[in-house]
Structure formats: C-alpha cells, structure tokens
Amino acid sequence: MNKVEFITKTSEETKKVAERLATLLRPGDVITLEGDLGAGKTTFTKGLGFGLGVKRTINSPTFTIVKEYLGELPLYHMDVYRLEGSDEDIGFDEYFNGDGITVIEWASFIKEFLPTNRLDIVLRVKDENTRIISFYPKGNDFEKICEELAR
Ligand code: ADP
Ligand code: MG
C-alpha cells in the first residue's frame, strides 16, 4: 500500500474524506497537506476537525503559523508557508510528540523537522470543483489506516 487516491467533486466531499480519516487517527499522529493555493488544504482540515469533534470554526492560520483546537483530541493546525527558506524551529517536536493530531499545510517548507512516521496528503486541482486527493502513508501505522480507507 503506497498510495490511496480519492476524487471529490465538491468541498463537502473533501470534508467527508477527511472526516473518515479522523475516525482512524491516534494521539501524536502527523499529517502533511500539500497543494496549490485553493487546492483544498484548509477545507480538508475543516473536515478533519469536524471528525475530531472540534466545535469552533477552523480558519486558515496564515498569520499565526499554528492554531490549537479542542476536540475529542486536540487539533494543531499549522500553516508553515511563511517559514519558507528559514530553518526556524518553532518547537515542532512538542506538537508532534504531544497528545493531539497535527495537520501541516505547506509541510515541504519544514521538511527537516517532520517525523519519519506520518501521512503525506497531496491535493491536486483537476477542474474548478474537482480535486484529486492522494494519501502517501509513511510507516506501518499509516499504511494500515490507508488500507482501511481504501476498503
Ligand atoms: P487551500 O487551503 O489549499 O489554499 P482552501 O481549502 O482554502 O484551499 O480553498 C479551497 C477552495 O476550493 C474553497 O473555496 C472550496 O470551496 C473550493 N472547492 C471547490 N471544489 C472543491 C473540492 N472538491 N474540494 C475542496 N475544495 C473545493
Ligand atoms: Mg489554506
């Protein structure tokens, strides 16, 4: 299992995919989200938050790098776009080793800090409302999760 792919035709469908993923996650899991502006990274995170029982509205954390939300598990929502080209460590390990789920938009900008076990997700724009969402599991736990999602 090196990849699972979903095609969604509305933002609601993208949220549903994320919501399904949320039910399979465990404390300390790290998810990276890659994709152009408008691909649906924040939309995906909203669905994930809903699945984790987050009641507050999730918005893009562009001006804060990380926002924390309380659900059944804490959700740490990062947008590290502004860290491009810097090697600043904002204390990533505290989040990655914490009790919550970490979701990182533009994760390639902090490659050197990412844990080896993680779920890499890439969103591609096919047309205005169609997205191709690819899951690339890194490590056995995430491979199992992807197998479950592919069922
Ligand atoms: P990003 O965080 O990647 O910049 P956003 O989630 O903020 O992207 O924005 C995605 C935009 O695309 C939203 O306006 C959303 O309504 C729209 N959209 C249209 N179709 C889809 C789809 N299938 N999945 C996700 N978003 C979609
Ligand atoms: Mg975003």
TrEMBL record:
UniProt subcellular location: Cytoplasm
Domain of life: Bacteria
InterPro entries named in the record: P-loop_NTPase (IPR027417), T6A_TsaE (IPR003442)
A matching Pfam family: TsaE
Keywords: ATP-binding, Cytoplasm, Magnesium, Metal-binding, Nucleotide-binding, tRNA processing
Keyword Nucleotide-binding set for record: yes
Primary site of residence: cytoplasm
Homology family: Belongs to the TsaE family.
NCBIfam families: T6A_YjeE (TIGR00150)
Name of this chain's protein: tRNA threonylcarbamoyladenosine biosynthesis protein TsaE
Organism: Aquibacillus rhizosphaerae
Upper classification of the organism: Bacteria, Bacillati, Bacillota, Bacilli, Bacillales
